[in-house]
From TrEMBL:
Domain HTH tetR-type: 14-73
Top-level lineage group: Bacteria
Protein source organism: Saccharothrix tamanrassetensis
DNA-binding region per Swiss-Prot/TrEMBL record: 36-55
Key words, A-Z: DNA-binding, Transcription, Transcription regulation
InterPro entries, sorted: Homeodomain-like_sf, HTH-type_TetR-like_transc_reg, HTH_TetR, Tet_transcr_reg_TetR-rel_C_sf, TetR_SbtR-like_C
Name of the featured protein: AcrR family transcriptional regulator
Gene Ontology MF term list: DNA-binding transcription factor activity; transcription cis-regulatory region binding
Keyword hit for Hydrolase: no
Pfam families, A to Z: TetR_C_43, TetR_N
Length: 206
């Protein structure tokens, strides 16, 4: 009986932790980093004490929520690299990353504003950038992606998506249309030179 009780307690704790993370992601995505911890606890259906047992402070909670979002973005690129068609892989990855960023850009901004340096992303960022660069290299090798396209242009695209994502409905519709327009401009065929690429300092995710 004691072993069964322990398993039930552990499962309840696991479920509570997941509910807190889900609620935090939803609330922070919608409202940014100024949301009180009590609001997150209420959304998760747990007490504030339960929230603090799992996450002793706001930094710990935001770090894990953002870490999960970062991992999801990288997994999109991993799936694209496994696709045997590099141009299709590039287009699908850009579409998916754009859609994810349209609804998650507030979380990214909240993390950058509230927790500078809280999560050591240097090694993971370098790995993500290498994967993105490889995705771009393969797409260029097909002759379908314009030769002057740079990885930094993907960050530019995500920032542009953030500009149209003012609500959930607009984020879905507006970001899809914007990404579709931009993908057309990325395709090879234009001989018009572009201005130099821009490196956005401190951008915390792919």
């Amino acid at each position: 009986m004691r072993a069964d009780s322990s398993r039930i307690v552990r499962e309840d704790a696991r479920q509570n932790r997941q509910r807190i993370l889900d609620a935090a992601r939803e609330v922070l995505t919608r409202s940014g980093h100024d949301v009180p911890m009590a609001t997150i606890a209420r959304r998760a259906g747990v007490g504030v004490a339960t929230l603090y047992r799992h996450f002793p402070n706001r930094q710990a909670l935001l770090t894990e929520v953002f870490d999960r979002q970062f991992t999801e973005c990288v997994s999109v690129v991993d799936e694209a690299l496994a696709d045997p068609d590099p141009w299709r892989a590039f287009r699908i990855a850009v579409e998916r990353l754009g859609a994810m960023h349209a609804v998650g850009h507030r979380l990214t901004s909240a993390f950058a504003a509230a927790l500078p340096g809280a999560l050591d992303l240097d090694a993971r960022r370098r790995e993500a950038e290498w994967k993105l660069a490889e995705l771009v290299r393969r797409a260029k090798a097909t002759g379908r992606l314009r030769a002057d396209f740079r990885v930094e242009d993907l960050v530019l695209l995500l920032k542009a998506v953030s500009g149209v994502a003012t609500s959930t409905t607009e984020a879905a519709a507006g970001s899809r249309r914007l990404v579709a327009y931009l993908l057309e401009s990325f395709e090879a065929g234009s001989d018009r030179p572009l201005p130099p690429p821009v490196r956005f300092a401190g951008y915390p995710g792919p």
